[in-house]
Amino acid sequence: MVSFDSVLPMLAAGGIGAPTLPSLGWFTNSIFVAIVVTSAILLFTRMATRRMELIPGTKQNLVEYLIEFLYGQVEGIVGKHVAPKAFPLLATVFIFILVSNWFGLLPGVGTIGWGEKVGPFLVDSEFVDAGGHHTFTPLLRPATADLNMTLALATVFMVVWFYLSIKELGVWGTLVHIFGPKGGLQGMLKYMLMPIFIFVGIIEVVSIVFRPMSLSLRLLGNIFAGETLLHTMGNLGATIGLPVWAAKISSVIFPLPFYFMEILVGALQATVFSLLCAVYIKLATTHEEGDHH
Amino acid sequence: MAGILETFGLDWAKFLSQVIIVLIVYGILSKYAFGPVLSMLDARRRRIAEGEANLETIKADLGKAEEKVRAMLEKANADAERLITEARDSAEAVRAQKTQEAIKEAQSILEKAREASRLEHEAALGELKRDFGRLVIDATSKVTGKVLDDKDQKRINEEAVGQVAL
Q: Running DSSP on this structure, what letter comes out for residue A10?
């Protein structure tokens, strides 16, 4: 049963795992939203860049401004040399996460779906079956509130990061960069401290291995928490026992301040994710003093 | 670990689907958005740099042209001043020359007039003397009743003219 009760109560998706849409196998609601977001981004950029002119129109101007701004930020972190190679991925990650996060704030996302029917167009989104599972399946779910998507973003980034590291420093250079002595040590001291540097390198490798998880879980946690917060605020009126009409009104008023916060959080998380990626690239492609270029 | 991943809904099929979506966005944005926009920004930057360089050249040319115009104007002014001075001097000289000529001409005319007047005066005086002499001769001839010969006429005429103080 499809719920059209989405305009007033802002209800989050049931459970943290992205549910598969009924009878569609692996095709989840977050994949569906990811496709919608992808299409929207590609459509807009195609419209803006189809006929590029030296004197830009409104859409071209907006896209140029955004790309120029992002390029300046990326160049400031990773440097002029690596920026052209790193920029496409970092900008893609930023734009995709930003649009996905804000898409999750649209009315209907997380609230229209399938569940236990309680009225002509109403389902009980809170219903939990005998096995303790939520039965409500939202049609739309923010793509970044699904670990599969956040992990996919982090994995693609790590692959590109690895490629850039090897391209910039070479295999041996990367190993030296991780395990080698730092600070330009020479002579006996360098060999005496080698075990410590190797140990530090092992810790570095562990931290690199955990980067995809830390990146993806940070983004997932923030966005899912935001969804849950809006859901909780939307249901707060009913939870504290307000009359039905007051609960309906409160379901609009209570989440309102948090909507503004979530707009900020959405932008902030996109920035944090792409900023960390840029810093990781910077750390991996920086030549030590005295290294061969 | 498997339990945690299951709780978070991690599924390889779903994960791969999302990876493919991310790669599609990455590829298409790189090809159709970042590439053209960065090229356009670079082209615009180069064009602005060229414009600035051209502007500097134009400014320099304008400065040179202004300097040239100023020099030409100064030269023209100096030439004009010189021409005016020369013209004034020339006019002054011509005027003086013409004045002198006019004075000389006037003096010449006066001289001539004076000479003519004197000649006329002398002619008139001679005529008068001759008439007076003839009258004296006639009167003498009538009074004396004697026909005077040329010798007498000449003597009487000379005496009469000599006694007339004109």
A: -
B8 and A CB contact within 8 Å: yes
Residue A94: per-residue pLDDT = 95
Q: What does the alpha-carbon distance between residue B147 and residue B134 come to, in Å, rounded to a whole number?
A: 13
B166 touches B125 (CB < 8 A): yes
Q: Name the residue among A226, A216, A9, A199 with its Cα closest to residue A105.
A: A226
Hey, which residues 17-36 in chain B have their CB within 8 Å of chain A?
Answer: 17-19, 21-26, 28-30, 32-34, 36
Which pLDDT tens digit goes with each residue over A232-280? 888 888 888 888 888 888 888 998 999 999 999 999 999 999 999 999 9
Q: Cα(A52)–Cα(B155) distance, rounded to whole angstroms?
A: 138
| Cross-chain residue pair B30–A88, CB shorter than 8 Å | yes
For residue A227, give Cα distances in angstroms to A106, A154, A232, A258, B22: 11, 21, 9, 10, 22
Q: What is the pLDDT of residues A211-239, one digit of tens each?
A: 999 999 999 999 988 888 888 888 888 88
Pairing of β A116-117 and β A123-124: antiparallel
| Mutation target among B26, B44, B45, B46 for the A interface, most CBs of A within 10 A | B26
A:111-170 residues touching chain B, CB 8 A cutoff: 143, 146-149, 151-153, 155-156
Q: Do A71 and B33 touch (CB under 8 A)?
A: no
Residues A207 and A203: their CA atoms lie apart, in Å, by: 6
User: Which range has the worst mean pLDDT, A49-63, A157-171, B66-80, B81-95?
Assistant: A49-63
pTM of this structure = 0.70
Amino acid at A116: E
Task: Tell me the C-alpha to C-alpha distance, in Å, between residue A15 and each of A131, A225, A270.
Answer: 13, 11, 23
